[in-house]
Amino acid sequence: MLIFLAILVIGLALVYINLSTLVKGRPGKIIALAVLLVIFASMFLRETLVGSALVSFFAVWLCVSLLFYIPWTLYRVGYYFTQPHHLSRRFVRRVARWLLGVTVALVGVMFAYGVPHNDNYKINLMTVPLPSQFTESFTAVYFSDIHIDPLFRKQKLERLIADVDSIKPDYLLFGGDMMDVPTMTLDKWGYDSLMKKLTSTAKVAAVGINGNHEAMQEKGESNPDAWMRKVGFVVLDDSTSCIGPACFTGRTDFQVARRRSVLRKPLSELIPLVEKHVKDSVEVDSLKVASAKVAVEDSSVVPDSLAADSVVMVDDPRPWILLDHQPRGIERWHSGRLPDFALSGHTHAGQFFPGTVVINWVWKVAYGTGALGGVYWLVSSGFDCWGPPVRFGSDSEIWVIKFKAREP
């Protein structure tokens, strides 16, 4: 987060330096300052249509403009220290105006292509072979990063409902970042009824987690987790639930935990367990206990070892699927059972150029499948976008995942 803020500050400084040379003297500085003020004001108006539109434009323009402003600024600095004469102010103004025109034109091209491209999400198919001990196959539809805001198209969600209903999955899995507006606004816009239709398409359960943008909406009467439960999701907030043929663990997002001033639980505390009744001493000796938590019928006696007629907690035999919004992997010190599969979002696969290149330097698995901490992981680019509804070099998507048991 601090690195992002540092990059943003440096970027805005470069924007100011270059825009201030558009016009000679004080008027140029006023123009540059006015642009910065509009950028900051739009961030505070993010929940309005005008604010969202301004944020969308400036988010794309800042990324594009820095591709030109950084080398141009470096050239000016190098010229200043290596040449006996300074660049003429007229030449600098001419270049500044040319760069502004080129960058605005490129933003127009990116919006013209990227908005409809973002609207047309892909349906990706994937088969995950289950280890031999699992005998029941099931299907899940996975999606993340909806980011409902004033620019989000309700028709896109309606298409998703129709598509998922035609698939009829056992599970509907959501990987976080539902909203960029308060939950009261979602109700006002009618998203509560649409989400209820979506969650009802799952034959077994709709399971969801929070993302870092839910942390921004945990304020006042707005409660993202409660809202998702209201519309039909089983919300896992650093908790585990075994429903039907599978077990799911949902992690509290790092930023949500920070906002609540709590620590995320160790994954070892979230391993799915099931009670097993130990009937005789032979079974006690042969049983591999997965947890030290033992409930004894005679609670007044704490045995040195397990005894007959005890209830112990052992690993649940069903497949274990982990949902964690940010693909950071699992803690290095984790010991014990590992999830059989993990799902994340958050990265948007960079969303638009040049983010689609930079994102691969930030995350070990920025998109698609890979191994994190010995766990097979899928990172989705998301169903929609943060800020500008623009995809340029990435795709909006959902995943249809078939968890396939080995044939007997």
Number of helices: 12
- Give the H and E element order: HHHHEEHEHHEHHEEEHEHEEEEHEEE
Structural class: alpha/beta
Strands of the widest sheet, in order across it, are 1-15-2-3-4-5
Oligomer category: single chain
Our estimate of the beta-strand percent is 15-25%
Distance between the termini: 49 Å
- Categorize the overall geometry: elongated
What is the overall pLDDT average?
A: 90
Radius of gyration over all CA atoms, rounded = 26 Å
Keywords:
408 residues, alpha/beta, 6-stranded mixed sheet, 12 helices, elongated
Description:
This protein is an alpha/beta fold and 408 residues long. The protein contains 12 helices and 15 strands. The strands form 3 sheets. Strands 1-15-2-3-4-5 form a 6-stranded mixed beta sheet. The protein has a 6-stranded mixed beta sheet with strand order 6-7-11-12-14-13, with no helix packed on it. α5 (154-167) packs parallel to α7 (191-199). The radius of gyration is 26 Å and the shape is elongated. The two termini are 49 Å apart.
Quick summary:
With 408 residues, the protein is α/β, with parallel strands linked by helices.
Q: How is the secondary structure organized here?
A:
Elements: H1 2-19, H2 26-44, H3 49-82, H4 89-119, E1 122-129, E2 138-143, H5 154-167, E3 171-174, H6 183-188, H7 191-199, E4 205-208, H8 212-217, H9 224-230, E5 233-235, E6 239-243, E7 246-250, H10 254-260, E8 273-278, H11 281-286, E9 294-296, E10 310-315, E11 320-323, E12 341-344, H12 355-362, E13 368-372, E14 375-379, E15 397-404
Parallel strand pairs: 1-15, 2-3, 3-4, 4-5, 7-11, 11-12, 12-14
Antiparallel strand pairs: 2-15, 6-7, 8-10, 9-10, 13-14
Helix pairs in contact: 1-2, 1-3, 2-3, 3-4, 5-7
